[in-house]
Amino acid sequence: IDDRYSDTCPKCEEDWELHGGKCYYFSTRYSSWNQSRDDCRRGGGDLVKIDSREEQVENTAMNDDYDVFWIGLTDSQEEDKWLWVDDSPLNTSFLFWNDTQPDNWTLLPEGEDCVVMGKKSGVDDLKCWFDVFCKDPYKSICEKSAETERVTRV
């Protein structure tokens, strides 16, 4: 094919949604953080890493107001050292913690080392992050790079 008449087009597998060159899968299965991460990896991705305000807004706009989803952020290796699933540190210029979060509520000895994204109380269109017990069951958001497909222009 003559490259002058073709473009690459990002695409996602069935049931994955394309946004900004990445594919997202909103799992409706309730699982622990670790099980959710394993499920995402089996699908070729990982729990979502939120790198920008745009990605936070896109992900919050794509799910139901009252849903709560695991994201790929944890301080399970070292308390208060928040890392994404790719081991990159949390960018402090993109923080979406709810008002009193993270609070590492210690009702359980393990504390709260994993993060969900959920609705901020009293605000209709804003989702925030909450640290929670990693074994609690929640839905999850998986992310992976979109595949590129060459399409011919006519």
From TrEMBL:
Q: Which residues form the signal peptide?
A: none
Q: Can you give the residue ranges of the C-type lectin domain?
A: 19-143
Q: Cite the InterPro entries for this sequence.
A: C-type_lectin-like, C-type_lectin-like/link_sf, C-type_lectin/snaclec_domain, CD209-like_CTLD, CTDL_fold
**Taxonomy, superkingdom:** Eukaryota
Alphabetically list the UniProt keywords: Lectin
The record's SMART domains line, in alphabetical order, gives: CLECT
- NAD found in the keyword field: no
Could you cite one Gene Ontology molecular function of this protein?
carbohydrate binding
Respond yes or no to whether keyword Cell cycle is given for this record: no
Q: Which Gene3D superfamilies match?
A: Mannose-Binding Protein A, subunit A (3.10.100.10)
Question: What's the protein name?
Answer: C-type lectin domain-containing protein
- Native organism: Anabas testudineus (Climbing perch)
